[in-house]
Amino acid sequence: MSIPYLVRQKTNLLNKAKSGLWYAVIRKLQRRGGVNEKELGELVAMRGGFNRGVVEGVLTAVSEVIETELSKGQSVTIRGFGTFQTALTSKGFEHPGQVTPGEVSVSKVYFMADRNLLRRLKKVNCYRIPLSYYLPKELLTPEILEEEKGLKEEGII
Q1: Closest listed residue to residue 42, CA positions, set 28, 54, 33
Q2: Distance of alpha carbon 150 from alpha carbon 156, whole angstroms
Q3: pLDDT(59) > 60
Q4: CA angle, 114 as apex, 109 and 120 as ends, to 5°?
Q5: Which terminus of the chain has a smaller tally of CB atoms within 10 A, N or C?
Q6: What does the alpha-carbon distance between residue 64 and residue 94 come to, in Å, rounded to a whole number?
Q7: Whole-prediction pTM value?
């Protein structure tokens, strides 16, 4: 498995006089939302020998239970996967008594990946999507074009 990436120029917001440097950024190949619960159910069913409908049902139930527990102020940890927790927000007040329940809301739900999952993902290789697919022609040097030609001939891209 390899993770595809694009190369993008980012500007330095602190010193706009300097041109931005180039960085690798993730390319989201999927439609919005990525893999949905139905597709995830199929993938898990194929890998684990479970019925797809049962897996989808379990995923739906897990989602509902996570929501319920988070709404009670609990965090939810799934060993080997990670931890879900909420963050709260409110505007600032001059007196602690003014921070009433009506003034507080959930601002985010955080997910922190299990350290073993993160360690395994850090070992995954990355590959660059050919620059000629998305950069303007004036930025493509002869060296880049030659490299990409060689990759096409090898069947890599």
Answers
A1: 54
A2: 9
A3: yes
A4: 130
A5: N
A6: 37
A7: 0.71
